[in-house]
Design brief:
Layout (H helix, E strand, L loop, with lengths): L1 E4 L14 H9 L3 E5 L10 H7 L2 E3 L2 H7 L2 E3 L6 H4 L7 E4 L7 H10 L2 E4 L15 H18 L21 E5 L3 H13 L2 E6 L2 H11 L4 E4 L2 H10 L2 E4 L25 E4 L20 E4 L2 E4 L9 H22 L1 H7 L7 E4 L2 E2 L2 H7 L6 H6 L1
Parallel strand pairs: 1-2, 1-4, 2-3, 4-5, 5-6, 7-8, 7-10, 8-9, 10-11, 11-13
Antiparallel strand pairs: 6-14, 12-13, 14-15
Length: 373
């Protein structure tokens, strides 16, 4: 199979779909890999590194899209990239379609086979192995950016997250105790903050309580608890996820007047539309806005701030699936690997993930029927 890796063009996105070590593995399996010149330069993977791994260096993205059987990316294709996709071509990347009807339409119009990292599950159907590494990074980053934006010159309250002797630390509220929420709590407790995690799964609450063993407060989430908790928090981290679907709007506009002026809200769920009514996507070069006296950090590609760590972590998870797609073709790969079929979001003009179809109010066609066609 001929595999293409274009340079990411989303604002300040420096990750790359395949690092040289992944290219080497694909070439070892008998596949050809095309890399757009400079695709990994921002994280110190030069064209020479890719050539040494066996890749062909291509001058522009247009040739890659025109020739490759499969495109491997990190972030969702931008509108001009959607126009270069073609019928039957495999696209393997993050998509986050529930909050992006324009992209969904572009993918449908192209006729491509779009497989989304974020909806691939494990064999149990409970975990998301290709989303997990970025969720871990986003969770850890959320505390770093929350602490940074608490500084007064960034619009925050001016409180040091970890406190000092005689002065209490910041109160950090984490909405959701899944992968990103768990890693956020690890970082926040490590800094010495007062941490509260709101969660609804009894099984998950027991795990969190046992793990943190008093270093974080684990509380069952309902509307009343949430409304009271946000009034006391100086950093609120939105870490809720419904795979493939739009994030629930847990923070309503009416809650903002009761929050502490200069408090910081970090919306990890912004890729899926955000978990606050006041959230809208921002970029690394202009990451925050203030509404209702609350600093909102809503960068839609948070792990892109640490692209070297992110690209390496992502490739470790993506490579086995990319190899299967290349070795077997997309139909057999999706059939043979448990949970992989749930990654199929768009296929030959149809939406094939039920949660995505529901979020976008579009017709749904089961992935199994597309494989049988």
């Amino acid at each position: 199979m001929l595999i293409g890796v274009p340079k990411e063009i989303k604002t300040l996105e420096h990750r790359v779909g395949l690092v040289p070590s992944s290219v080497k593995e694909l070439v070892k399996h008998g596949h050809a890999v095309m890399i757009e010149s400079g695709a990994g330069a921002a994280i110190n993977f030069s064209d020479a590194h890719y050539e040494q791994a066996g890749a062909m260096i291509i001058g522009g993205a247009a040739e890659i899209y025109a020739k490759a059987d499969m495109i491997v990316k990190v972030k969702e294709p931008q509108p001009n990239e959607c126009k270069m996709l073609r019928k039957g071509q495999i696209l393997f990347t993050y998509l986050h379609l529930a909050a992006d009807p324009q992209q969904a339409q572009g993918l449908m119009d192209s006729g491509c086979v779009a497989i989304a990292y974020e909806t691939v599950t494990d064999k149990s159907g409970r975990t998301l192995p290709l989303l997990q590494p970025m969720s871990e990074i986003a969770g850890r980053l959320s505390v770093q950016v929350g602490a940074y934006h608490l500084m007064k010159h960034k619009g925050g309250t001016g409180r040091l997250m970890g406190g000092v002797p005689g002065v209490r630390p910041a109160d950090v509220l984490i909405l959701g105790g899944g992968v990103s929420g768990f890693h956020a709590a690890q970082m926040a407790t490590g800094l010495g903050a007062n941490v509260t995690i709101l969660e609804r799964s009894n099984e998950r609450m027991r795990f969190l309580d046992e793990y943190f063993h008093g270093r974080a407060n684990i509380i069952y989430s309902n509307t009343d608890v949430l409304e009271k908790a946000v009034q006391k928090a100086e950093v609120v981290i939105g870490a809720v996820l419904i795979p493939g679907a739009s994030a629930p709007k847990l923070i309503t506009r009416s809650m903002l007047p009761g929050m502490i002026p200069g408090s910081v809200f970090v919306d990890i769920a912004i890729d899926q539309g955000g978990c606050a009514e006041t959230s809208h996507p921002t970029t690394h070069d202009n990451p925050t806005f203030v509404e209702g006296g609350v600093v909102h950090y809503c960068v839609a590609n948070m792990p892109g701030a640490v692209p070297l760590s992110s690209a390496l972590a992502l490739n470790h998870s993506v490579l086995p699936y990319a190899l299967a797609l290349a070795d077997k073709g997309w139909k057999d790969a999706l059939r043979d690997i448990p949970g992989f079929m749930s990654g199929l979001n768009v296929c030959e003009g149809r939406i094939t993930h039920e949660a995505v179809a529901h979020a976008l109010d579009l017709d749904y066609r089961a992935a199994e029927t597309m494989l049988a066609a």
